[in-house]
């Protein structure tokens, strides 16, 4: 059964090789743990100005902290997460969370900016709970419940990220900024404890000896990139997620600089409280899944709604934000709402496209999405500093959001190739839910053939 962190409590063990049932409680638990594990990447955002003062550097210097955090997570997606297709997901998740917490401890203790930056990258490299549980929840959900369950588990990370900003701003305003990181360490230990006690054991998707996995590791990584050439819908969905997350991350990165300067001159606590605005929107995430995405049935229609919500938010925030705080408030609400609708719809669109490779499909999708976060963090900061502040950065965001419309229009919901609208656009044809059911039948058939061959 394993020792230490690899030991499995009796109530979490597999019984007769039956896949554990996905309950609402377990979905909420995965949302919570995924959310606060992902929060590691965002505690620094509201306190970048404080970090710059303490480490005696410029805003550009501390902007490397969130940039390296995003780079670490992107490396995790590319180099580590594909292995989740071959290891038991409970043990895989617990080991990764433990390593992330150990490197986070180093961030709490160091006084050297270079070491802090290196540890930021290493901690993010093993921050992967959300990337394990999202494909797991999608895999275990019935088609009729998939949008609702994905909305819950998809809300968790964003909700955790926003709460991280709130807590970070408040704690740094009244105490030393290092207490923010000690708080983050305590939350990681809580996440580790909850997963250890409640996460069921799951059979590996592809069970192989460790030696075989090591030998085929380069081919495993190569198989991720082959997915882009085999599945046009994966490329389209990934690019849509790229645009959405680029704009959202750009907003939160530059918001700190806008609100900490004239005419607002807000402190860390007030800036952190802006996260409450987005958090209140995200509480409606499951309702978006149940009453918007599921009834529309065709995910691309929901994607269009998500892009439109984001576009309105960016336009209002960009041109009102320099005069009135209502601009950034409206932008936060609409950006988060648009992101939730687009993310869940895009994730449903790629469900079941490659049977037996759910984590690698998720990796292919999330790599592009997190490259968007990386681009949003770095490029928005550069545009803000080089071209005159909030409005140029916002106009850049408007252009990226508009690109989402072009990506949506380039390929219709029933198109099998790379470009075009063959099959039309009407809802009277086969629905997205039907496509998912077909994919699941194909997956089941493939698994039966595999068993027969054995």
UniProtKB/TrEMBL annotation:
Matching PROSITE patterns: MFS
InterPro entries: MFS, MFS_dom, MFS_trans_sf
GO CC list: membrane
Membrane-related topology note: Multi-pass membrane protein
Keywords: Membrane, Transmembrane, Transmembrane helix
Compartments where located: Membrane
The UniProt record lists the keyword Magnesium: no
Region (Disordered): 428-454
GO molecular function: transmembrane transporter activity
Primary localisation category: membrane
The UniProt record lists the keyword Nucleotide-binding: no
Residues covered by the Major facilitator superfamily (MFS) profile domain: 23-454
Pfam families listed in its UniProt record: MFS_1 (PF07690)
Protein name: Major facilitator superfamily (MFS) profile domain-containing protein
């Amino acid at each position: 059964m394993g020792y230490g962190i690899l030991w499995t409590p009796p109530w979490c063990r597999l019984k007769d090789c039956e896949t554990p049932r996905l309950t609402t409680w377990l979905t909420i638990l995965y949302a919570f743990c995924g959310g606060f594990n992902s929060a590691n990447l965002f505690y620094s955002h509201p306190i970048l100005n404080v970090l710059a003062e303490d480490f005696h550097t410029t805003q550009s210097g501390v902007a490397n902290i969130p940039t390296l955090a995003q780079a670490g997570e992107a490396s995790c997606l590319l180099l580590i997460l594909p292995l989740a297709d071959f290891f038991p997901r409970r043990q895989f998740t617990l080991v990764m969370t433990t390593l992330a917490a150990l490197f986070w401890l180093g961030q709490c203790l160091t006084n050297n900016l270079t070491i802090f930056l290196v540890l930021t990258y290493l901690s993010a490299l093993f921050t992967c709970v959300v990337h394990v549980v999202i494909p797991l929840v999608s895999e275990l959900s019935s088609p009729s419940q998939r949008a609702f369950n994905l909305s819950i588990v998809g809300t968790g990370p964003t909700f955790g990220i926003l709460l991280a900003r709130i807590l970070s701003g408040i704690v740094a305003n009244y105490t030393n900024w290092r207490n923010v990181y000690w708080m983050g360490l305590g939350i990681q230990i809580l996440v580790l404890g909850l997963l250890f006690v409640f996460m069921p054991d799951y059979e590996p998707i592809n069970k192989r000896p460790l030696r075989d996995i090591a030998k085929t590791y380069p081919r495993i990584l190569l198989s991720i990139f082959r997915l882009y050439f085999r599945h046009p819908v994966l490329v389209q969905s990934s690019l849509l997620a790229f645009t959405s997350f680029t704009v959202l991350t750009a907003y939160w990165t530059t918001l700190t600089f806008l609100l900490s300067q004239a005419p607002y001159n807000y402190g860390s606590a007030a800036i952190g409280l802006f996260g409450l605005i987005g958090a209140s929107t995200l509480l409606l995430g499951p309702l978006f899944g149940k009453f918007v995405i599921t009834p529309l049935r065709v995910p691309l229609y929901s994607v269009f709604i998500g892009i439109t919500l984001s576009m309105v938010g960016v336009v209002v925030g960009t041109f009102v934000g320099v005069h009135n705080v209502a601009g950034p408030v409206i932008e936060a609400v609409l950006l988060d709402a648009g992101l939730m609708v687009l993310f869940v719809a895009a994730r449903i669109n790629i469900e079941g496209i490659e049977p037996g490779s759910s984590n690698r499909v998720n990796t292919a999708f999330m790599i592009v999405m997190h490259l968007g976060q990386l681009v949003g963090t770095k490029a928005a900061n550069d545009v803000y500093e080089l071209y005159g502040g909030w409005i140029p950065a916002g106009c850049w965001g408007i252009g990226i959001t508009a690109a989402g419309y072009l990506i949506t229009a380039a390929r219709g919901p029933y198109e099998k190739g790379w470009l075009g609208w063959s099959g039309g656009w009407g809802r009277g044809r086969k629905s997205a839910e039907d496509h998912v059911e077909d994919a699941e039948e194909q997956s089941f058939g493939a698994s039966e053939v595999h068993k027969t061959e054995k």
